[in-house]
Write a structure and sequence with these properties.
Radius of gyration: 21 Å
Largest sheet: 8 strands, parallel, barrel
Helix content: 25-40%
Structural class: alpha/beta
Strand order of the largest sheet: 1-2-3-9-10-11-12-13
Strand content: 15-25%
Shape: globular
Order of helices and strands: HHEEEEEHHEHEEEHEHHEHEHEH
Distance between the termini: 38 Å
Length: about 350
């Protein structure tokens, strides 16, 4: 059972404990306060005073299928979220839903059989979406009969065990319209579910709106936060995932259903402030003064650290703080990192994004 927590208080507690126990870690020297939520795409530490935890600490952690067991085995005061990839559709049998977009890889989780990696493929948007919902049902503690009802209604197979997967592959080359129901009930161990809806498979706006409304309503009915990640808003992948922006689009409707929604900044983002401002306005329900839009406080910025810079990190920090957004989420993106290498560019970016201490000197 995790302790009661508040995100900003959690990080302060974590760092305070670290200051006494882990003198060699960089944040002990440089931590100077936190002004917003600071999320990490990393497994949550088992406790807040663990001197061997690998990452710069956060007020919340997004943990995927590979490390989901850590969500149930922690006393950390930080918030814990499960990170779920939405299933995309593929061009199976000429369905035309995904092949044109280069979605040649199947969906997660990966499954290894006789030394060969297999993924999961869906022939229609609705089957892909309903499998995503069925997987959420398992993760948030709904009964298996609810999962089977989805399967029967929408015409896909569900498998609950590796033995079922192995049996299927004995007679089939791959998983087509098969939904793997992995994991266990996390509803008492997490604070919310992060759905990464980077499907990019030519979805109609109504398909996306209806599904995300249903999915977020289900997550919130379990007493948890519904958090949405997408491709960079306004870009080609975002549009192909079934979003349109502005007052006449569906993005503001989807935004209203969510507890939090992510913007995106990465190495190819040239003018960070202008780009983030343009992304955020796509979710506004009316064309009005930005600072009067109260719900902008539901937005936070994902930062892809690989290839990012200290100057861009400072722009993100200023944008989030000045506009009173929710916070920052870190996606490591293969950036080299060590908690004890205080002169590394990655550490300096993390320090800047977390605290506003953006000086280049160590």
């Amino acid at each position: 059972m995790k302790y009661p927590k508040s995100g900003l208080m959690a990080l302060s507690l974590l760092l305070t404990m670290s200051n006494h126990l882990v003198a060699q870690n960089c944040e002990d020297q440089n931590f100077s306060g936190l002004h917003y939520e600071f999320y990490r795409n990393a497994f949550i530490p088992d406790r807040d005073d663990n001197p061997n935890y690998l990452y710069y600490p956060g007020s919340g952690y997004f943990t995927g299928e590979a490390n989901m067991d850590k969500l149930t085995a922690t006393s950390s005061a930080a918030d814990g979220y499960f990170f779920q990839w939405a299933n995309r559709c593929h061009d199976i049998g000429g369905s035309g839903c995904g092949g044109a977009n280069g979605n040649t890889k199947g969906n997660l989780p990966k499954y290894s059989h006789n030394g060969v990696e297999h993924r999961f493929f869906f022939s229609t948007h609705i089957k892909a979406n309903m499998c995503t919902l069925a997987q959420s049902y398992r993760l948030l503690g709904s009964d298996d009969t609810d999962i089977l009802n989805l399967s029967n209604q929408w015409g896909f197979d569900v498998m609950f065990s590796e033995s079922e997967l192995d049996q299927h592959l004995a007679n089939n080359a791959q998983f087509e319209d098969v939904c793997y129901i992995y994991g266990t009930d996390l509803s008492q161990d997490i604070d919310g579910l992060v759905l990464d809806y980077e499907v990019q498979d030519n979805r109609h706006v109504n398909t996306t709106t209806n599904f995300l409304t249903r999915h977020s309503s289900y997550v919130k009915s379990r007493g948890l936060k519904a958090i949405l990640w997408t491709n960079p808003p306004g870009g080609a992948g975002w549009l192909k995932s079934g979003f349109t922006g502005g007052p006449s689009g569906n993005a503001p409707l989807v935004f209203e259903q969510m507890d939090e929604v992510a913007l995106f900044a990465y190495s190819k983002t040239s003018d960070v402030t202008s780009e983030l401002y343009a992304q955020s306005r796509l979710y506004m329900p009316v064309n009005s003064e930005y600072n009067k839009w109260v719900n902008r406080q539901k937005l936070y910025v994902i930062v892809g650290l690989g290839g990012f810079s200290l100057d861009k990190s400072k722009e993100v920090y200023d944008f989030v703080l000045d506009k009173k957004h929710k916070g920052v989420a870190i996606w490591n993106n293969s950036a080299a990192y060590s908690r004890t290498d205080c002169d590394s560019s990655t550490y300096k970016m993390l320090r800047c994004l977390a605290t506003g201490d953006c000086l280049p000197a160590s």
